[in-house]
Amino acid sequence: MTKVRYNNMDALRSLMMLLGLVIHAAAYFRDDDLANPFLVFADASGFYWILRELIHSFRMDVFYVLSGFLSFMILEKHTTQSFIVDRLIRLGVPLLLVGGVINYLSFFFIKERFYFPGTDYFSTGRWLVHLWFLANLIIYSLLAPMFYVFFVKFQLVRIPLRIGMALYGLVGFLFLHAGWRLAGQPTLMGFFVLDELIIYFPSYLLGGYFWLKRDSFIANLGCWKVTLLIFLVLLAVWKLLTPVNSYAIYALEVARFYWVLTVTLGLLQVFSRELSVEQALCLKEISNSSYTIYLFHLSVLLGFAYLLRAAGITNPHVSFVIMCVGSYTLLYLLHQQIKDNRYLMFVINGKRFW
Q1: Cβ-based neighbours of 42, under 8 Å, separated by 6 or more
Q2: Mean of the per-residue pLDDT values of the chain
Q3: 326: three-class secondary structure by DSSP
Q4: Helix axes 249-271, 224-241, angle to 10 degrees
Q5: Confidence of residue 109 (pLDDT cuts 50, 70, 90)
Q6: Which terminus, N or C, of the chain has the lesser number of Cβ atoms within 10 Å?
Q7: Residue 188, SS3?
């Protein structure tokens, strides 16, 4: 696979990140009990619950698979020390800025709707909000060199690709239940949400495994049809056996991981093809600006929601489009203004200027 196509994979990872903007915008219009506590429009729609759940069913797992793939690629080309230092800066600096300052100000602004950000703001992990995945990536990055050596030393690369993907379903199932046991537990020093840290780790490791078997992996992207069939069979088993066997839910839980494989392989099959110059430039712009957009989108969405309510625009579909397009456009323009300033890019995106 060429360098150009690896860049396309990075763009796909960026698109997964940007789908977070869509999920969080949809949360303002959900008509279920889990609706966004920040600010909910009076005219909600069940469509946004479906939209949110559909995207959430694959977004973070696909993101972590791609992150693991690209992390192992970097580890193969750089020293462990340079990899860890780069990841700590790239992930940690924006995390502290947005979580420690921007999110705090946002919560203060909506304190009458949610809570006042007092002394427990950090200790309870509330400062993470939409940035929890960055904290996860920091831990995964610290563990990545050890697992890279482990995979190579024990020659896990010799495991056939399809068996490796089947093992992902099993390991993912075990980690899923381990994570659920920790759900609702206090965060580790207010920095890591333990259940999510555990649940998504198999997807990150799967990405690393795919890198070590990259030739076979790229040659078998069409396997998404097989994983889709397995997913549908597991769904059928769950549906048919649920009335007579309480353990049928396990089939649904394993099906989750075959759905992730289906979406990952299917999207990569699309993104692995050669692109025109215009398409490549478009993907590059999306990739370069996605970090800035995701970091700040939650506060900007909140601002748009207040403005729309003040203007009397309550139609959920019109408001949703305005919030998504407006937030993306505004933050994309912000990125264009700061991208050539190395000091701002360090503070906002964690890009080193030395």
Answers
A1: 314
A2: 88
A3: helix
A4: 160
A5: low
A6: C
A7: strand
Number of other CB atoms surrounding residue 290 within 10 Å? 24
Model pLDDT, residue 4: 47
Q: What is the DSSP string of 13-67?
A: HHHHHHHHHHHHHHGGG--STT--SS---SS--HHHHHHHHHHHTTHHHHHHHHH
Q: What is the pLDDT of residues 135-174, one digit of tens each?
A: 999 999 999 999 999 999 999 989 999 999 999 999 999 9
Count of CB atoms within 10 A of residue 260's CB? 26
pLDDT band at 25 (very low <50, low <70, confident <90, very high): very high
Q: Tell me the C-alpha distance between 218 and 161, whole Å.
A: 11
Cα(54)–Cα(266) distance, integer angstroms: 16
The CA distance from 22 to 15, in Å, is 11
Tokens 């490796």 -> residue: 164
Token readout for 303 is: 């601002």
**Four-CA torsion 162, 165, 170, 175, nearest 10 degrees:** 170
For 122: left if phi > 0, alpha if psi spans -120 to 50, otherwise beta; the answer is alpha
DSSP 8-state symbol, 101: I
Q: How far apart are CA 310 and CA 67, in angstroms?
A: 40
In DSSP notation, 192-257 reads B-HHHHHHTHHHHHHHHHHHHTHHHHHHTGGGHHHHHHHHHHHHHHHHHHTTT-GGGHHHHHHHHH
The full DSSP string for 194-206 is HHHHHHTHHHHHH
pLDDT tens column, 224-250 = 999 999 999 999 999 999 988 889 999
CA distances from 20 to 16, 58, 155, 168, 286 (A): 7, 12, 36, 24, 14
Q: String of b and e for 291-312 (b: at least 16 CB within 10 Å)? A: bbbbbbbbbbbbebbeebeeee
